[in-house]
Specification:
Strand order of the largest sheet: 13-12-11-14-15
Largest sheet: 5 strands, antiparallel
Structural class: alpha+beta
Oligomer: single chain
Strand content: 15-25%
Distance between the termini: 13 Å
Length: about 300
C-alpha cells in the first residue's frame, strides 16, 4: 500500500505512528501538507511529496501545518481533493472541520442528544455580555474558549460582562460554556481515546488549577473507565464522524458525565504513560483496515 503520514511537529507521536505502520507492513512516506502543490497542465494536478507517479492509497493525518487562514484553507482543500480522488484520509477533512470548530462540535453533540455543558456562541460582544449578565455570576462562571483553540490555550473564566475581551481579541466569536465544578473541589476531568468507534483507553487529568490539559501541567492518572463513560465517548465520536479522537469528559455531579470537547488531532503521550494499550498501534491498525476496505476489489485480487 502507498501510505502517507502527514505530520509537521510532535516528533514523539510521529515516530510512534511511523514505527507502528512499519510493524504492520506499511512503508509510510512522511510529508507535510505545507509541501503539497497544485500544478495543472500535465497529469494529476495534486502533487504530494514522495508520490511523484500518482496519489497515495491512504493518508494518516497527525497534524496540519500552521499558517494563515488562506494557508489552512488550502491544506484542507488538499485533503478534500484526496478524499474526492478515492484516497482514504484519517481523520477526514470534514471531521476535522467539524471538530476544530467548537461551535459546530457543540451543535452536533447537542443534536445527538448527548449531555454537554450549556453552551452559548455569539458574534457580538453585546450579545455575549447580555448572556453573561443572565447566566454567570460569583461562584458560577462561564468559560470563554477560542473557537479554534487547543491544549487549554486562551481559556478564561467569565463572571461579569466587563470580563469579556473586545471582539477583535476573540476574532468576533464568543464561545461560552458553563463551568462545571466538582463537588470535592478537585481540578479533574477525563480523556477517552476512541478509535474505529470504540473507546480503547482513558485517563484522569488532574491539575493544580482549573485547566487540566497535560500540555499545561496537568497530571495523567490511570482510570478504570466506566462503561457509561466509554459509551458516551463513542457516541460523541460518532456524532462528529471522527475515526480516531480524544473525547474530553467531566462529571456532572449526579453520577454521570458531560461531553466537553472532541479532538480530531489528539495527542496521547500523557495517556500512554498510564495505559497498557499501544495507542499508536491501534490508530495504525484501524487506519490500514480502512485503506484495505476502500481499495477496489480488482486491486485486492491482484495483490493476492
Amino acid at each position: 500500500m502507498r501510505i502517507g503520514l502527514a505530520a509537521d511537529n510532535g516528533n514523539w507521536h510521529k515516530a510512534r505512528l511511523r514505527a507502528a505502520l512499519e510493524h504492520l507492513g506499511a512503508e509510510p512516506v512522511l510529508f507535510s501538507l505545507a509541501d503539497v502543490a497544485v500544478v495543472t497542465g500535465a497529469g494529476e494536478p495534486l502533487r504530494v511529496p514522495g508520490f511523484e507517479d500518482g496519489l497515495p492509497d491512504g493518508v494518516l493525518l497527525r497534524t496540519i501545518a500552521g499558517g494563515t487562514f488562506e494557508a489552512t484553507t488550502m491544506r484542507l482543500g488538499v485533503l478534500h481533493a484526496l478524499v474526492a480522488s478515492g484516497v482514504t484520509v484519517w481523520n477526514s477533512p470534514g471531521a476535522i472541520e467539524r471538530s476544530v470548530d467548537k461551535a459546530m462540535t457543540s451543535l452536533l453533540v447537542a443534536r445527538a442528544g448527548l449531555p454537554t455543558p450549556d453552551t452559548f456562541v455569539f458574534s457580538s460582544r453585546e450579545a455575549a455580555a447580555a448572556c453573561v449578565a443572565r447566566e454567570a455570576g460569583p461562584g458560577r462562571p462561564l468559560v470563554l474558549k477560542p473557537l479554534f483553540g487547543s491544549q487549554g490555550e486562551g481559556l478564561q473564566l467569565i463572571t461579569r460582562p466587563e470580563d469579556l475581551p473586545g471582539e477583535e481579541a476573540v476574532s468576533r466569536v464568543y464561545y461560552l460554556q458553563r463551568y462545571i465544578a466538582r463537588n470535592d473541589g478537585l481540578w479533574r476531568d477525563y480523556r477517552v481515546f476512541v478509535c474505529e468507534g470504540r473507546a480503547i483507553a482513558a485517563m484522569i487529568r488532574e491539575g493544580d488549577g482549573w485547566i487540566t490539559n497535560v500540555h499545561r501541567g496537568g497530571r495523567p492518572l490511570p482510570w478504570a473507565m466506566p462503561a457509561q463513560a466509554a459509551e458516551l465517548a463513542e457516541r460523541a465520536a460518532a456524532a462528529i464522524g471522527v475515526d480516531y479522537t480524544g473525547i474530553d469528559l467531566v462529571e456532572d455531579g449526579e453520577g454521570g458525565y458531560l461531553v466537553l470537547e472532541v479532538n480530531s488531532m489528539p495527542a496521547w503521550s500523557g495517556l500512554q504513560q498510564v495505559t497498557e494499550v499501544d495507542v499508536a498501534a491501534a490508530v495504525a491498525r484501524g487506519f490500514l483496515n480502512a485503506v484495505r476496505a476502500a481499495r477496489p476489489p480488482r486491486l485486492l485480487a491482484a495483490l493476492g
